Amino acid sequence: MEITLRSVLTILHGMGFGALFLLAFSGAFFELVRTWQGITTPSSERPVRIYLLVMVVLSWLTVLSGAYIIYPWYRAIAPPGTADLSAYPQLFLKSHPNTIGWHSFGMEWKEHVAWIAPISITMVTAVYFHYGHQLRNHHALRRAILIFVAIAFFAAAVAGFSGAMINKYAPVQGGHIFHLLHGA
Amino acid sequence: MHESSPNELDRTLPNGFGAAAIFAAGIGCFSLGVFTVAGDASKSFARHLIFYTPTGPLSGVTTCAIAIWLLTWVLLSLRWRSRDVPLRQVLTIAFVLLGVSLLLTFPPIIDLF
User: Which end of chain B is more exposed for a tag (fewer CB within 10 A), N or C?
Assistant: First the structure.
């Protein structure tokens, strides 16, 4: 049993940073609503701030690792005459009518819409840091940042789903091979 | 640990900081959509957006959008942070920009240009 370096980094991008970011949304919704109901005190805001800050870091790690580590491998150009396109995911997807949509729709959507998530969650976190429990005095502001949290979740979910499906049909592979288990 | 006094708890900060952050996020997302469409529609413009060759035009699309977002945020924060602004108009524009950005990053819409 073996795994390649590119597979490890793709897993880190998608299941490490991305999936953790998606999982964190339910907690963020819960804590933001709880804060605005007046249940929390100024001293209990600290864990929420740390939680949101971790979400910000995860969101940026996800898009930056995706764009600057995984995506170059995905869009690599095959040398002329290459018959086996399995090491060139974008070309592999485009080579068959049943899979071309995962590039022309899935990847095209994912690679752009994903960036709305870190922009939104960074803004939400900054607003929470500034106002804290006082957000309960700003009805319009808190409603607006909840909508941005929802849009960030949507953007991240689109990117996560597309990424998972694309990697299912045309996995990013290559690089150093790690042998995990030797065959029986 | 610092405990806030009741007066501190009741004090209401101006809405300007929040309005600036939300409006700038709307501008940033909208910029992302505009650069996405422009890069897709024009090959020559797309070449100018290649800031990092292995990533291609996506590197320029996102870097430009983030730069515009952060610059807008800083400038608006400097102007608005210590005062109240007409939040209804600001939020309406921000959500329109956010909605348009979602459309402009949707492939069937991108292909219309």
Answer: N
